[in-house]
């Protein structure tokens, strides 16, 4: 664990000053390679429809699912397309799920004037018992019923169902399966303890400044300015910091200035300008000491659709002078010291949370890994770039650390796969709410939370 | 005596536009590869065909390639992009189509999807 790394000869703070203060050199970065090229978009063209991304998703995942279906239900099962179905014949069909939800926000309902309806307020969950599940392949769709949990699944998942077609045209499902864990990557992790700090939801620019003290404490711990020699020697083992999104608070997104008259808002600056300046100063302190990867999140000044492009370096003039600052995409994939990290800022998980009965962020994270796709609800309910050639969110290799940012609380789990995959699932909590960050040990894939709670206005001393 | 030279001779040569075209259509200049179908028709009439027009049998073969569902949706991307995508997904699209697309690269009737009545995606 982190605190056990303290150097044995470390002295406490109440010790006489020594002639030569001990220094702890930070462990050098031995291997880093950025694997998020599929998420970096060059020329963007939005004149395409989303049919392409669904078509390549199905075509790309179909071979893997057919293999999985054969290994699960026998080599001699009949794999049919929906157009070849015969009534009463037991067969297996591979297709995309579509969940018809009544409460799903629809732009057509909002602008429909005949109904005179007020736009639906945002709900925490949009599921209802009357939702129906449909399977679509390249040409047709069919309604599903039977041994399939309608409430749990979301639109856009590629699934293989085994069953037969009924007289009324519905498909009775006896069993279903997903793509399951992708093939494992060879393990070449470090032999000594090395830590990576995962934090998300710094929430700068919010109205209350309570989280600022915790943020400064976090920076001080990482740069070794906090604690005695014991803590400093531990902090020297942190080789990287990954900030997983929502560096700015949701308050910076207020659009009141648009509705007000121009003469009232002429001199006011957008709240995000001050917040980005604060972010620049914090990143400057971190970058002078440790490599930092900054991922954008839902409230950060970058594009809205997934994959979000890196923040522009002109916004961070002080910090981008250092080569240790890396502005990366969301989702982010990289190989650190031989350990493959893959993670998002949490928009994919929170979107599945809204449209599924699953309540636990860690459960949803594990489910996306088993379904073989980072974000199946894109582009249906989550904005996505209209890819046409390939779907970069399909998981082709199993990462060693799979994280999502901006979760309500910290959770972690080590998942073992049948083919020897070992994945550490981490839900990184929102720092502005919980003041908790995570430390991942690269040697044995263990994870530990670290909390910087400060005295709040309502707590009594 | 040499021909009187103008200042404009040193400017880069631009393609002469057809008569009746409004000046300053910047969109037209940089949209070589975009799929803006409305401007497609105008561009066709202005450009002099540099090679013989493709025969109707070739166009028919390309239309059948567009409408075959195995290779995915055909709207919004060029036929060559669709062919290459099908190739990468292992759907083995027929080779002669690619040769035809590369041969008639300049002809927008060949590169873009067949358009119904000039309005399409």
What does this structure look like?
The complex is a heterodimer of chains A (461) and B (121). In chain A, the strands form three sheets. A six-stranded mixed sheet of chain A has the order 1-11-12-13-15-14. Chain A has a six-stranded mixed sheet with strand order 10-9-8-7-16-17. Chain A is α/β, with parallel strands linked by helices. By secondary structure, chain B is an all-alpha fold. Chain B has a domain of 57 residues. Chain B is elongated and about 60 Å long. About 18% of the residues of chain B have low confidence. Chains A and B meet through helix 1 of A and helix 4 of B.
Give the structure's gist in a few sentences.
The complex is a heterodimer of chains A (461) and B (121). Chain A has 461 residues and is of the alpha/beta class.
Question: How does the helix and strand content of chain A classify structurally?
Answer: alpha/beta
Number of strands of chain A: 17
Mean pLDDT of chain B: 68
User: Uncertain spans of chain A, ≥5 residues at pLDDT below 50?
Assistant: none
**Name of the CATH architecture of the largest domain in chain A:** 4-Layer Sandwich
Question: Helical residue percent of chain B?
Answer: 40-55%
Query: Sheet bearing the most strands of chain B, described?
Result: none
Enumerate the spans of chain B where pLDDT stays under 50 for 5 or more consecutive residues.
28-49
Beta content of chain A comes to: 15-25%
Q: Classify the oligomer.
A: heterodimer
Protein name (chain B): DPOD4 polymerase
Organism (chain B): Chloropsis hardwickii
Biased composition (Basic and acidic residues) (chain B): 1-12, 25-46
GO cellular component, one term (chain B): delta DNA polymerase complex
Question: What characteristics describe this protein?
Answer:
heterodimer; A: 461 residues; Purple Acid Phosphatase, chain A, domain 2; 2 domains; six-stranded mixed sheet; B: 121 residues; mainly alpha; elongated
Secondary structure: elements and pairs:
The complex is a heterodimer of chains A (461) and B (121).
Chain A lengths: L31 E3 L16 H23 L17 E10 L6 H5 L20 E5 L4 E6 L11 E8 L5 E7 L17 E5 L10 H13 L6 H7 L2 E7 L11 H4 L2 H4 L5 H17 L4 E4 L29 E3 L4 E5 L2 E6 L2 H9 L5 H11 L29 E7 L3 E6 L5 E8 L1 H4 L1 E6 L4 E6 L10
Parallel strand pairs in A: 4-6, 7-8, 8-9, 9-10, 12-13, 13-15
Antiparallel strand pairs in A: 1-11, 2-3, 2-5, 3-4, 5-6, 7-16, 11-12, 14-15, 16-17
Helix pairs in contact in A: 8-9
Chain B lengths: L25 H5 L6 H10 L9 H12 L11 H10 L6 H9 L4 H4 L10
């Amino acid at each position: 664990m982190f605190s056990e790394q303290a150097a044995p000869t470390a002295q406490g703070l109440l010790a006489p000053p020594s002639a030569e203060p001990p220094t702890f050199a930070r462990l050098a970065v031995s291997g880093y390679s950025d694997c998020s090229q599929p998420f970096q978009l060059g020329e963007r063209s939005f004149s395409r429809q989303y049919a392409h991304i669904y078509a390549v998703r199905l075509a790309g995942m179909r071979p893997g699912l057919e293999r999985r279906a054969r290994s699960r239900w026998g080599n001699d099962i009949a794999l049919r397309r929906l157009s070849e179905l015969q009534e009463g014949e037991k067969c297996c069909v591979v297709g995309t799920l579509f969940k018809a939800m009544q409460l799903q926000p629809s732009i057509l309902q909002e602008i429909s004037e005949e109904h005179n309806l007020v736009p639906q307020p945002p709900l925490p969950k949009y599921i209802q018992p009357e939702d129906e599940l449909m399977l679509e392949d390249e040409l047709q769709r069919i309604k599903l019923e039977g041994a399939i949990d309608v409430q749990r699944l979301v639109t856009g998942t590629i699934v293989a169902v085994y069953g037969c077609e009924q007289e009324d045209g519905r498909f009775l499902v006896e069993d279903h399966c997903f793509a399951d864990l992708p093939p494992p990557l060879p393990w070449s992790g470090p032999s000594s303890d090395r830590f990576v700090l995962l934090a998300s939801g710094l929430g700068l620019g919010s109205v209350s400044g309570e989280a600022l003290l915790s943020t400064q404490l976090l920076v001080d711990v990482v740069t070794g300015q906090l604690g005695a020699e014991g803590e400093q020697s531990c902090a020297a083992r942190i080789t990287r910091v990954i900030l997983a999104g929502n560096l700015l608070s949701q308050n910076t997104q207020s659009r009141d200035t648009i509705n007000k008259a121009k003469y009232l808002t002429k001199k006011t600056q957008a709240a995000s300008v001050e917040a980005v300046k604060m972010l620049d100063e914090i990143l400057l302190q971190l970058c002078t000491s440790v490599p930092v990867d900054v991922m954008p999140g839902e409230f950060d000044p970058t594009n809205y659709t997934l994959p979000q492009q890196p923040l522009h370096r002109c916004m961070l003039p002080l910090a981008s002078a250092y080569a240790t600052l890396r502005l990366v995409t969301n989702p982010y994939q990289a190989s650190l010291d031989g350990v493959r990290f893959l993670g998002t800022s949490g928009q994919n998980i929170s979107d599945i949370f809204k449209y599924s009965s699953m309540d636990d962020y860690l459960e949803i994270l594990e489910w996306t890994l088993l379904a073989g796709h980072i974000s199946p609800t894109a582009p249906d309910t989550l904005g996505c770039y209209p890819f046409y050639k390939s779907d970069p969110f399909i998981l082709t290799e199993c990462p060693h650390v799979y994280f999502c940012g901006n979760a309500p609380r910290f959770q972690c789990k080590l998942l073992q796969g049948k083919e020897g995959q070992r994945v550490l699932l981490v839900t990184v909590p929102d720092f502005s709410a919980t003041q908790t960050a995570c430390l991942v040990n690269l040697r044995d894939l263990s994870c530990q939370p670290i909390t910087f709670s400060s005295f709040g206005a309502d707590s009594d001393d | 005596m040499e021909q009187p030279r103008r200042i404009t001779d040193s400017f880069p040569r631009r393609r002469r536009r057809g008569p009746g075209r409004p000046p300053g259509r910047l969109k037209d200049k940089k949209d070589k590869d975009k799929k803006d179908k409305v401007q497609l028709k105008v561009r066709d009439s202005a450009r002099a065909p540099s090679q013989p027009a493709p025969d109707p049998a070739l166009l028919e073969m390309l239309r059948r390639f567009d409408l075959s569902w195995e290779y995915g949706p055909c709207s919004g991307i060029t036929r060559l992009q669709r062919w290459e995508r099908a190739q990468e997904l292992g759907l083995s699209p027929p080779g002669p189509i690619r040769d035809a697309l590369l041969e008639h690269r300049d002809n927008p009737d060949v590169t873009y999807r067949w358009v119904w009545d000039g309005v399409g995606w």
